[in-house]
Amino acid sequence: MQPAPPQPLESLSSLLQAWRRHWDEVGAIQRTLPAPARDRLERLSGDIETAFAQTRHLFALEFPPGVVSELQGRLADALAVVEEMARTGGASLETGPDAAARQLAASQLAVTVRDVIAAGDALEMHLQPIVALDKPLGTPVGYEALARFQTSPYEPPNVWLERASHAGLQHELELSCVRSALAHLAAFQATPYLAVNVSPATLVSKDFERLVADVPADRLVVEVTEHEVVREYDLLLRVIGGLRARGLRLAVDDAGAGFASFRHVLELSPEIIKLDTHLIRGISEDHSREALVRSLVSFAEDVGATLVAEGIESRADLLTLRNARVPLGQGYLFAHPGPAPTILRRRRTARTPRQRAMSA
Fold it and tell me: What is the pTM of this model?
């Protein structure tokens, strides 16, 4: 006789206990690492969402597919219980969440995302400069637009995009972000470009084409993230061809983070290739990554693309990338992302002696 499957609330408890044991052991292992390894870990982001994103590919290699599927199922059951508890104040747990409760949760999620799209004060576009590495404190060559949702409690944009996707509203949310970003283009100086992030599905849509119809396309770069699956490269290339004829440029984001990004590069022939943060951070102390970046510099030169190194946080990494002939970069060493008026005003202020020394 087969044992009865655990109830969702029991599944939630056992899942939390399993994760607690897992992370206790991770902490114990970290405390025994040699000093250089600990120093490298301390340079990584302390933000939980960013840390999970940084380990996504490692998890994909280390967890068997069956374990991933079971974990996803247990998480779904546990989250359904939490949603039911929030809705009913803890009542009706004896029978567990039913289809009606799930439908209600989905509709509530859709309303939440629609509220974000409609509320102009909830969505704020931040900018991060993209600079020439030989003169990193000169006028930026471009700015990447990054969505920030001013909600309480604050949640990072990937959380909102995931929720929007589950609610069938990712396309609408992405268009809202692009629309907000384009509103700042008029405040730029004459030459810097504006980079916006969209999924391939949004890029090929008529809505996106109409949105950028009146924008000077030669000032616009569209970044396609490597995490998005492209099922029809031919369709994407046809749509991009029309936009490129107007001067728009294409960037492949997160190159070096996974196989999908390299396939994007080969299939789409982007004008810009953005090197992933994990490949760049700490490169001054990792000859293997430096060698890979040097090979990508040669590749980019051969195909006529421009490299942008993301996640530059130390002067040592900057010098290594300069020596490797990487032309452009962005990262906390130059500026954290910030509200557009603040970032644009900061770039116009006089530089300090320390800043002039760093750009030398």
Answer: 0.66
Asked whether the bond before 34 is cis by omega within 30 degrees of 0, the reply is no
Considering the chain, what is the average pLDDT of its residues? 78
Candidates 186, 125, 135, 184; CA nearest to 337 is: 125
- What domains appear along the chain, each with residue ranges and CATH number? 8-33+48-91 (no CATH), 110-359 (3.20.20.450)
Query: pLDDT tens for residues 190-232?
Result: 789 999 999 888 888 889 999 999 899 999 999 986 555 666 7
